[in-house]
Amino acid sequence: MTTSTRDHESHNVIDFFTGKPFSERLSRRFIRLAPELDGLEMLYSNDAHPDRYFTLKILCWALRADGDVVGLVPWLNDITACPDLQDPLHGRWEGYYDPGIDEVFYEAPIHKVLELEAAAEYYEFDWENDDDIMQEVPDTIGTHAVLSGDGFKTLTLKEVISWRLHASGELSGMLIDEEKVIDTPVLPGDKCLFPSREHSDFRYYFQHNIANRIKARDPEAMAAISLLVEP
User: Which residues of the chain have pLDDT under 50?
Assistant: First the structure.
């Protein structure tokens, strides 16, 4: 994959916040996505329930610039590589899970690795700005963004239509601006979409099963929400 010459000029530059070379950060950025279409999940645990394991549907698989392939899941207010999930309170990665054969595994499926490597070789991009859009994939797991501007006294849930991969390696969950809708259904790439992080009331992402429980004011779901409310 062809990138900006900045990849080669930044190996002596240190990130002020992380203390690591920019070249290392660039090598870990995502450069290509492949949607997960077979229902594979992330397996995780947390300290609040030490004797239980939980699963979360994987959104897609991502190829890093250094060749590593990882599953991605919407998590709290961002999208996270499954192996990077290390918050003991909210969740700790325990592996990938195939519910169809009840199998746990720890490396990306070989067919996804091959798909991503072939696509990255075929689609060569030269980028000038970190915000340039490299790819956009549909959300296939029913992700919703939770919006609240009053400390979760009231909630609005908006469906995430797609995820845009930027040249920086960051992903944006895309929401519908209802006032700009012209054609329906709204598809990835539509001009009425905007990044959730640009909405001042954006707080968290939830998959459809939790989102539906929140819509129904399920007591357990609302109790979980209360734990996430900032002091």
Answer: 1-11, 15-18, 20, 231
Residue 2: what pLDDT?
A: 43
Asked which of 64, 99, 126 is the last residue of a domain, the reply is: 126
For the chain, the residue count is 231
Residue corresponding to tokens 């309170």: 89
Domain count of the fold of the chain: 2
Is residue 45 within 8 Å of residue 91, measured between CB atoms? yes
Q: Which long-range contacts (CB under 8 A, 24 or more apart) does 150-154 make?
A: 151/229, 151/230, 152/203, 152/225, 152/226, 152/228, 152/229
Q: Are 185 and 172 in contact (CB under 8 A)?
A: no
CB 105 within 8 A of CB 113: no
Statement to judge: residues 72 and 162 lie in one domain: no
